[in-house]
Design a protein that fits this description.
404 residues; Beta Polymerase, domain 2; 50% helix; elongated; metal-binding
Length: 404
């Protein structure tokens, strides 16, 4: 273990002094909190979870944690990572590492006991600090000063760090959106601009995850504009138009929902291409398609229109589309519109296939066609017709159509 002295002392966040993090730090000699917990504690932001590093090989870490009564899951043993759990609270614990070989996507690592060597392989100075349970802070590359200045800066040479893992280009913009103030680091941006071709080597899943995380920033617009200027946005989201609609969406206080914000960047027909290329989940694919293609409620819509929209998709989907409508159209009445939508009960079509058969219709393809026509009539009427009215209309439709 390196015998360097801490650069400073701070009051450690409460999470380090209780629960699973405290148990992990107590079980591992020389262990420290690393990454986001340290960064956010210094920034005065809430610390929601704690990652820990220790100058021990993974097997030694796992053995000591089990001996201390924690459950251990080997979630990333090849990369030196295990997850310790106490009272259902997880803590990710990683051995100190140094890179042996990198290819722009993956790294082959070896274990070390040198904290500075481990910190040197991290992406940004604000993420390269470590903190003991007692509050001793180690800051090898000026991360605390960069954090105070709102400066996102690579550890070491930016071009070298990007060649090690091109995802760091996207991570730069995410951290710039959350922690950056003023002009971005010019050296970093220049290196990212040169590294754009390397983004093609990243997996779709990693790119999508970073885009979603960027969209969770309170206001990602400046970072996205910087991405566009550097050629990164066109490389990872070529369907994106301009940032005007997203800026309005942020300005009106729309929910911080990544899919909603992504939709604000895209033209109406882009959902399928984006979902396929970035490998969105089925739920994300459907949600993006809804946002881009389904009708958007307006303050002038009557309850019948709103009921029809709710009959097709749930309240959350309809409400999300009101935010896009407000960002596009402006004007008054949107708050009242959302209140009206929230107060409406979601209509449910009152008949199913078995009801048609019970009414005397012969089984066959005609039943599905009749129910589809009936549902169209029910929707057109504002989704107010009840079961008996729908059965009566079904009999009328059946009498006027030959059985298939």
């Amino acid at each position: 273990m390196s015998d360097d002295l801490p650069a400073d002392w701070i009051a450690p966040p409460g999470l380090l002094r209780r629960g699973a993090p405290a148990a992990v730090l107590a079980a591992l000699p020389g262990a420290r909190a690393v990454g986001g917990a340290v960064r956010d504690a210094l920034a005065g932001r809430p610390v929601h979870d704690v990652d820990v590093a220790a100058p021990l090989p993974p097997e030694g870490i796992a053995g000591r944690l089990r001996a201390a009564g924690l459950r251990v899951f080997e979630t990333g043993l090849a990369h030196g990572t295990v997850t310790a759990v106490l009272d259902r609270e997880p803590v990710e614990v990683t051995s100190l590492r140094r890179d042996v070989a990198t290819d722009g996507r993956h790294a082959e690592v070896a274990w070390t006991t040198d904290w500075r060597e481990d910190a040197a392989r991290r992406d940004f100075t604000i993420n390269a600090m470590s903190l003991s349970a007692e509050g001793a802070l180690w800051d090898y590359f000026g991360g605390r000063a960069d954090l105070a200045a709102g400066r996102v800066r690579f550890v070491g040479d930016p071009a070298t760090r990007l060649r090690e893992d091109y995802l760091r280009a996207l991570r730069f913009f995410r951290f710039q959106a959350r922690y950056g103030t003023g002009a971005p680091d010019a050296t970093a941006v220049a290196a990212i601009r040169m590294a754009v071709p390397g983004l093609a080597r990243l997996s779709a899943e990693r790119v999508w995850m970073e885009l979603k995380r960027l969209m969770q920033a309170p206001d990602p617009c400046e970072a996205l504009a910087l991405m566009a200027e550097a050629g990164v946005l066109a490389a990872v989201l070529p369907e994106a138009l301009d940032l005007t609609l997203l800026g309005r969406l942020v300005g009106i206080g729309a929910p911080v929902e990544p899919l909603l914000r992504i939709a604000a960047l895209l033209p109406a027909g882009a959902a399928e291409a984006v979902a396929g290329r970035l490998r969105l989940s089925g739920e994300e694919r459907e949600g993006l398609a809804d946002l881009l293609s389904l009708p958007r409620p307006t303050p002038g819509d009557g309850d019948a229109v709103l009921r029809r929209l709710l009959a097709v998709r749930d309240h959350a989907s309809v409400l999300d589309r009101t935010w896009l409508g407000e960002a596009e159209q402006g004007g008054e009445g949107w708050v009242a519109l959302r209140q009206r939508i929230a107060a409406l009960e979601r209509p449910v079509f009152p008949l199913q296939g078995r009801d048609a058969l019970a009414a005397g219709l012969a089984p066959g393809p005609s039943v599905g066609r009749l129910l589809a026509a009936l549902r169209g009539w029910w929707l057109e009427g504002g989704c107010t017709a009840g079961r008996e009215a729908c059965l009566a209309r079904l009999r009328e439709l059946a009498a006027g159509r030959p059985e298939g």
